[in-house]
Each structure stands twice: as C-alpha cells, then as structure tokens.
UniProtKB/TrEMBL annotation:
Keywords: Glycoprotein, Signal. It holds the Pfam family GUB_WAK_bind. One of its GO terms (molecular function) is polysaccharide binding. It catalyses: L-seryl-[protein] + ATP = O-phospho-L-seryl-[protein] + ADP + H(+); L-threonyl-[protein] + ATP = O-phospho-L-threonyl-[protein] + ADP + H(+). It is an enzyme of class 2 (transferase). This is non-specific serine/threonine protein kinase. The gene is LOC127746567.
Length: 280
C-alpha cells in the first residue's frame, strides 16, 4: 500500500498544481491568438484593435467601456456609447487613434426629446483637431425671424416650438434672447455665415460628426507589441494586460494577477501618439 502511494505521489502533485493554475494563465495562448489575430470589422469600420472590442473581437481584448456594436440591419452601421450617449461611428483611423462620430439623437431631428450636452470620458477620449462648436438654444424668449439661426423645431413648420442655433463664429447671442436650455455640439463642418444657418445645413453638419481621439493605454500597448505580445484588458483588475504566446515576459503579482506593461523593459522608439497601421 505504501509503495502504491509512493508511485502515485508525483501524479497527485501534478494534478494539484494544474487545479490551482488560474484559468486566465492556462489560456494565455488563446487570449494571445484572439487579440492578436481578431479585429473589429463592420461595414466601413475595419481593422480596429486595442483598446476596442465587440463583434468578433472578444471582450478580453479591449476596455470595458469601449465596446463597438455592429447593426447589420442598417447598412452595417457601427455604434459606440460614451458617457451614456450613443454615437454612430462614421469613420475610424487606427493609425492616429482618431474616429469620426455623430450623435444618434440628432439623426431624428434637431429637437430631441431630451436636451443633453455632448460630453466625453476624458480618461478614454479627447476632442480631435479641426472641430468647431455649435450651441443649440431651446425654450427661448426674445426670438424673432430677424435673428440668424432662428428655426422651427420641425422642418414642416407646423409646430410652434422653436430653437436657436449659434455657431461659435457668430460670438455670443443677443442680450435680448433668454433661453432655458442649451446644448453644445462639436462640428467638423464650419457654419459661419447667416445664409448657412438653414435647417438642412445645421442638421447635415451635426450628422457629419466630429473627431475624437482615443488616448487610453496607447504608450503601454506599444511596449507590449514591441515585446511580441498582444494588447488586451483584464476586466477583474480593470487594467490593460499584455498577452504572450507563452509565459515569458510576464511578471506576476503576489495575488496571482498578471502584472501589466511595466514588466516589459522594451520601450517604443516611435512617437507614442502615432500607432502602427496594424490597428493594434
């Protein structure tokens, strides 16, 4: 009996070790393959990698708040939600971490049911270059047809509800106009002169969108890629993670979690603000 236990002891020890290995360590190769080889592709939005996930790209490959959603029933349109506001993703440029987005609520008219300011999560995004500012004022007193940007809330002109559009190029509104609500919307198209402040032009400028730049974990991802890894995200620790084909390059914390990018000594020789064409 003792000899039998002695013979089985090595096998029992190996079994115990395997049982205690956390599942995310035993699937390093799977995570590496998933995040290195899988890009988000939907309609005109293609080759999108870290820090995004969605579609065929698994959630461990991107930040929890950076999910891209594809709607195949509406021209394969991509959507993203930022601070509880839904946007259409019109274009994406992985090589310089920018995308053009437009507010979904203003595709249904210029007077949405809720007047909400445009707001970004500045830990993840910043406004891109070339944006202009438009302010839409609602529930105003002192408006008249002689004021540029004075428009009916509905294009058929059957409503008595009005709004007032004020591009930044026109400066502050007249002192005679007092409004209860205002909404800030960035634009890429400039609305400068009085003749441009028509319903169709304002609606078209808003739906043309504005640029945002994603800023989260870009420099860290360079270090991961230069070490031969694939960028991902540990949702449990809420930290970016580097997946490798094997355990080389990893440094582990005492609690068993993967230590993130500062474990890699290799630093990028490129500009931290310009990504490779691979889309990460």
């Amino acid at each position: 009996m003792a000899s039998l236990l002695f013979m089985l002891l090595p096998h029992l020890m190996i079994l115990l070790i395997l049982i205690q290995i956390p599942p995310y360590l035993s699937s390093n190769d799977d995570n590496y393959t998933s995040c290195a080889d899988t890009r988000y592709d939907c309609g005109k939005i293609n080759n999108i990698g870290f820090p995004f996930w969605g579609g065929n790209r698994p959630k461990q490959c991107g930040h929890p708040l950076l999910q891209l959603n594809c709607d195949p029933d509406h021209d394969s349109t991509t959507y993203i939600t930022i601070k509880n506001m839904r946007y259409r993703v019109l274009q994406a440029y992985p090589e310089n971490q920018t995308m053009k987005i437009a507010r979904v609520d203003y595709f249904e008219g210029l007077c949405p049911s809720k007047a909400v300011n445009t707001s970004l999560d500045f830990e993840l995004f910043d406004y891109g270059p070339g944006n202009k500012n438009l302010t839409l004022f609602y529930h105003c007193n002192g408006l008249s047809n002689s004021i540029p940007g004075f428009l009916n809330c509905f294009s058929n002109r059957t409503s008595n509800e009005y709004f007032y559009a004020r591009p930044e190029a026109l400066g502050a509104p007249p002192s005679s106009v007092v409004c209860r609500t205002s909404v800030f919307i960035p634009l890429l198209l400039q609305l400068d002169v009085e003749v441009e402040l028509s319903w169709n032009n304002i609606e078209g400028a808003i739906q043309n969108g504005f640029l945002v730049k994603w800023i989260g974990s870009v420099a860290e991802c360079f270090k991961c890629m230069n070490s031969g890894g694939a960028c991902g995200y540990d949702w449990n620790s809420n930290q970016p993670t580097c997946y490798c084909k094997d355990e080389s390059g990893y440094s582990y914390l005492d609690d068993g979690h993967i230590k993130i990018f500062d474990a890699f000594a290799t630093s990028s020789t490129q500009d931290d603000h310009v990504l490779p064409n691979s889309g990460m």
